[in-house]
């Protein structure tokens, strides 16, 4: 377990981020993983409040676009990252605290954080966020329980580092919210007839294309309204509309049936997220030790070990061929 003042690394997983949002006390929002950013991918997810992008961090002092330093910084909630491993939480909080959509209920903790620190500069906002026991506890509760304590000195300084940032539209412009920068990065205006998601797509693609060919360590997630809430609302709207205007009963029943099926799928997904979280937090070490002892007593341990070693060798050989 992490020490009280430390922040752990958390994985890029929609279930983890959705549970993290709930741990903050925020309602009406969840996170969905995106496998592509081609046109149409967002249609079934709207409204999309923001995007969280994970990429391999490369030291680059020059921002891709102008950094906001004017009075907009007083209206955009931007916090500097002042502590290691906090970028995942900062990315999601930056989106939530700048979101004005009625579906999103920040809850008392994030509302208090925003009200208290909005008048601060980005550095002080970062310090305020990092010193919140509630937010740090929520963040660290998402970490997967390690089987063994790792020696931090054993890791190479050349080991790849990864970083989370956020993208969202604020007052008709697309901003990149990266806590390692001095301020929000302005990627330009969203035209009147343009969806902000169409405007941000080339920005993300440009960032991906800047890496060497074959680099695949990217992850993109969408911060969207609670899907179950959306489907329940659609059922209510459909029933209300059917009372006001003549509608085919078979059509209404079929649509409601489909929406209820989607609600069941959402319930199953959230239950899986909860199960996955329990598994992350469970200590499997006693089970593993007992299993190894039983295999050793039955003279099967070395045979299992040799088979595992052979499988690992075959996988390694296949990778070399590719």
SSE series: HEEHHHHEEEHEHHHH
Q: Strands of the biggest beta sheet: in what spatial order? A: 1-6-2-3-4-5
Using only C-alpha atoms, the radius of gyration works out to 23 Å
The best one-word shape is globular
Detailed description of the structure:
- Helices cover 47% and strands 13% of the residues.
- It is of the alpha+beta class and 322 residues long.
- The chain has a 6-stranded antiparallel beta sheet, with helices on both faces.
- Helix 1 (14-24) crosses helix 8 (249-281).
- It is globular.
- The two termini are 38 Å apart.
- Residues 317-322 have low confidence and may be disordered.
Summarize this structure briefly:
With 322 residues, the chain is an alpha+beta fold.
Write the layout of secondary structure elements.
Blueprint: H1 14-24, E1 29-34, E2 48-56, H2 87-98, H3 107-117, H4 122-130, H5 133-140, E3 162-170, E4 173-177, E5 185-189, H6 196-209, E6 219-225, H7 227-244, H8 249-281, H9 285-297, H10 301-321
Antiparallel strand pairs: 1-6, 2-3, 2-6, 3-4, 4-5
């Amino acid at each position: 377990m992490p020490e009280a003042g430390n922040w752990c690394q958390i994985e890029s997983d929609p279930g983890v981020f959705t549970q993290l949002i709930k741990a903050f006390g925020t309602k009406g929002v969840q996170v969905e993983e995106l496998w592509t950013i081609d046109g149409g991918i967002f249609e079934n997810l709207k409204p999309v409040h923001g995007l969280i992008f994970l990429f391999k961090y490369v030291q680059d002092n020059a921002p891709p676009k102008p950094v906001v330093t004017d009075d907009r910084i007083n209206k955009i909630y931007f916090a500097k990252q002042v502590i290691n491993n906090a970028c995942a939480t900062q990315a999601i909080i930056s989106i939530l605290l700048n979101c004005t959509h009625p579906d999103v209920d920040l809850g008392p903790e994030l509302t208090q954080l925003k009200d208290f620190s909005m008048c601060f500069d980005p550095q002080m906002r970062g310090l305020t966020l990092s010193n919140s026991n509630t937010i740090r506890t929520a963040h660290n509760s998402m970490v997967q329980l390690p089987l063994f304590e790792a020696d931090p000195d054993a890791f190479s300084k050349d080991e790849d580092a990864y970083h989370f940032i956020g993208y969202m539209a604020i007052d008709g412009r697309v901003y990149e919210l990266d806590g390692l920068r001095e301020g929000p990065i302005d990627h330009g205006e969203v035209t009147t007839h343009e969806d902000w998601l169409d405007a941000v797509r080339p920005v993300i693609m440009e960032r991906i294309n800047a890496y060497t060919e074959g680099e695949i360590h990217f992850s993109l997630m969408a911060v969207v309204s609670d899907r179950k809430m959306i489907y329940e609302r659609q059922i209510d709207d459909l029933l209300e509309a059917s009372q006001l205007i003549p509608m085919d009963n078979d059509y209404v029943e079929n649509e409601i049936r489909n929406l209820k099926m989607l609600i069941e799928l959402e319930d199953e997904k959230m239950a899986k997220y909860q199960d996955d979280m329990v598994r992350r937090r469970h200590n499997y070490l006693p089970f593993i030790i007992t299993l190894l002892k039983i295999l050793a007593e039955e003279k099967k341990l070395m045979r299992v070990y040799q088979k595992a070693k052979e499988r690992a060798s075959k996988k390694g050989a296949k990778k070399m061929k590719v």
